[in-house]
């Protein structure tokens, strides 16, 4: 009945089941699009009867089995998209019969075996991606020797070995060469560098040996060059300085020697230079200070000497400066300014001397870390460091610092780790640092005249007071909830509310024990001793994250199941609040708590381990940059929205998170999001005013709603604003606060300024460059998501949508 059908497009629905054998009856079919559904089972061999097929799009399903040999009978097929499925088996040797094939995309499957040599007979092939499969063997020698020439080849994440074929760019058309995470051991750099069309070369994490040739490539279009984690040696060619389009250079973890070429300073577009973990000698070229777009400079773990160039230290755009583990000498000039965008400054394990510059206190954006340990610094700790209220890690250990620790360091409220050990410090330490004495006593050792006794005593008294107050609050909460349950018993129509209240009451009674000195609420087969043994007494090597509310460790128990263990500060009532929230919620997009325990002023929360890292890491820190298509960004947007809608509309009392941000969104292997870190969360009684007040601004810079600067009552719309900022971050791939926006401009203002230009270029210029290359309908959806983000970040909280309305809007966007 449908034999004359030419196009069948059911993209992006919720189709389930398998593809029927009857698809073979569609002999006139030219376009088959069933992508982004939930189809399962094997590809039917009958598809080979669809002799008119030009394009197959079956990507992003749950298809399994093997590639049927019959598919190779499709002589006019030009595009085969089977990526992101569970297809296994071998690539059929009959693939040579697909003589019209141009695009062959099978990445993210479970293919095994070798790439058949017959693939070199596909003379029209211009794009091939077999990344992240289980393929092995040598890549066919003549791959790329086609009549039109390959434009893109991606074999990342397999087990290929041997030489990289020399003919990949035989026709001078290759633009993308990504062979990372394999076991290649030989490469002809001469043939690769002579390919003037190449824009992206990624050969990281292989076993490549040899050196880079010293020859000129004046027409090079290369923008991304990554050879990290190999065994390459020799000198870094100065000719790389002629690659004027280069934005990212990563040669880290190799055996390169000699000096850093001064010519690198002439690459005006360079954003990232990573030459760490090599054998480089000589000084840091002052010419690098001419790279006015440089965001990251990592020269750590080399043998560099001499002074740190002033124009490098004060480079306005620089966000990450990592120079630790070298032989750098001299003093640090006192020239840091508030205009600088440094997020981390790591100078540890060098031969630096003089005093620590007080102008470090001007670095208003720094938060990832300040490490000046294992040097020869003298003098006192500058009181201005207290201005670094976002800084999370401070390490000044193993120097010759003297005098007292300034009391102004009490203002460093975001610190999660401090190390001042092995100096000549004296007097008392800041009164708010008691938790560091309890949790990391070695952080202050080696200072004979440093007084810790009074702090220990005061800290213990503080813990007792907090525990007494927590107990009173929890008893009151249990009474209130008990009364709620009795009242709800007379209101059958509110049965669902009764159920939730009972759940909250039971959880609260279990958590009454959090005020005691020794309490366990762990799974039956797990004890506190098991946790300490598995983490080697909370050793640093198990740390996977730090935040203002605690340190997170990853470890395994029993049969290899991984868990996240969060160490929290019992001196703050946040510990009990966080346990209350985690114990009372259950949603697929919220991190699940499995138990907790308390020992000797240490609180541990046991949660499920989410293996994919944070959204912040995926957006801003991983190299090479993680590609995020529309489906992935939409999944993350919807998942976080559903989690917040659950907290705001389905929990009794309502839960307001108050710290929604990308670093609190964890991702699993499928990039499904889970909202985490409830250290600032609060229960909000809709009918109550007294329990909903707030006395301080909370949250993270860039995500904080405007009203938090003056409002005294907690309102869930602050979460809506933070969620909107996270959406902008996801779409623009820019941090909420970025010095490149200009003074006083955050991502919300920056996007609005661009949109006010009222031209398509300015609007698209807001978005991540990857979005520019999406299909038209996906770009339109991205713009709709951008509009929703701007609604969420309206100044007046009353005009922002609710999270339930946001979920509904998201569902409509993707229809």
Write the layout of secondary structure elements.
Layout: E1 7-9, E2 31-33, E3 40-42, E4 55-57, E5 62-64, E6 79-81, E7 88-89, E8 103-105, E9 110-113, E10 127-129, E11 134-137, E12 152-154, E13 159-163, E14 176-178, E15 183-186, H1 189-193, E16 200-202, E17 209-211, E18 224-226, E19 231-235, E20 248-250, E21 255-258, E22 272-274, E23 279-282, E24 296-298, E25 303-306, H2 310-313, E26 320-322, E27 327-330, E28 344-346, E29 351-355, E30 369-371, E31 376-379, E32 393-395, E33 400-404, E34 417-419, E35 424-428, H3 434-439, E36 449-451, H4 453-488, H5 495-510, E37 518-521, H6 528-534, E38 543-547, E39 550-557, E40 561-569, H7 574-584, E41 593-599, E42 602-608, H8 615-620, H9 630-650, E43 654-656, E44 665-667, E45 673-675, E46 682-684, H10 717-732, H11 747-755, H12 760-766, H13 776-792, H14 803-813
Parallel strand pairs: 1-2, 2-4, 3-5, 4-6, 6-8, 7-9, 8-10, 9-11, 10-12, 11-13, 12-14, 13-15, 14-16, 16-18, 17-19, 18-20, 19-21, 20-22, 21-23, 22-24, 23-25, 24-26, 25-27, 26-28, 27-29, 28-30, 29-31, 30-32, 31-33, 32-34, 33-35, 35-36
Antiparallel strand pairs: 37-41, 38-39, 39-40, 40-42, 41-42, 43-46, 44-45
